[in-house]
Amino acid sequence: MFQFTRPLIKTSILPLRLLRFSSTEAYTNALTHLKKDLKAAMLAKDDTKKTTIRSMLSTIKNNEIAQNGKEATFSEFTLFDTYSKMIKESQESIKEFQENDRKDLMEKESAEMEIVKSYLRQLPVTSEEEVDVKVFELLKSLKENDKDLQIKNVFGKVNWRDLSNEWKTSPTVIKRSILRQFKDAL
């Protein structure tokens, strides 16, 4: 007599909150690794590592929320940029603590920065030194083709998505390297 219009069994394989539709495998693996390390730090009662990993996860989540409406792909390059930004902020904080003679805070910030650096090194991305070598070669080849090469033309000639995937690095790292080396390559 009664007809059910909805299936009795839930057909969803995974809840939506677990799916990361626009992320790479390396991104998902890095987040999983962070969460496992957070659990291990909690069990070991390692407060420095625990707070640092929580801060990292919070920053990553905030970046995801900020990119929610945009067509953004979350990749190891996104994590590289996030970790690099966190390291830069830590270096600035350490400098301020040093100027104000706060050695206790300086040591704490240094320990947290080393933890972030360890996760940065684990990412499957090319080092900045290797990128610098590739950028120098790129600038030399562009300069050979165009004698009046200007920096704005360099940025226009580069296919950022393909280049970052081919070189296994963030477009931000490539841009910084181009800015640093443009005059040297001339």
Q: How is this structure best described in words?
A:
The structure is a single chain. With 186 residues, the chain is mainly alpha-helical. The protein folds into 2 domains: 23-122, Uncharacterised protein YqeY/AIM41, N-terminal domain (Hypothetical Protein Yqey, Chain: A, domain1, Orthogonal Bundle), CATH 1.10.1510.10; 128-185. 71% of the residues lie in helices and 0% in strands. The protein is built from 8 helices and no strands. Helix 1 runs antiparallel to helix 2 (47-66), helix 2 crosses helix 4 and helix 3 packs antiparallel against helix 4 (103-122). The chain is globular and about 60 Å long. Mean pLDDT is 85; it is low at 8-19.
List the helices and strands and how they pair.
Blueprint: H1 25-44, H2 47-66, H3 76-99, H4 103-122, H5 128-145, H6 151-157, H7 160-167, H8 171-185
CATH superfamily of the largest domain: Uncharacterised protein YqeY/AIM41, N-terminal domain
When the domains are counted, the total is 2
Q: Report the strand count.
A: 0
Fold-level CATH name of the largest domain: Hypothetical Protein Yqey, Chain: A, domain1
InterPro entries: Asn/Gln_tRNA_amidoTrase-B-like, YqeY/Aim41, YqeY/Aim41_N
Subcellular location: Mitochondrion
Protein name: Altered inheritance of mitochondria protein 41
Family: Belongs to the AIM41 family.
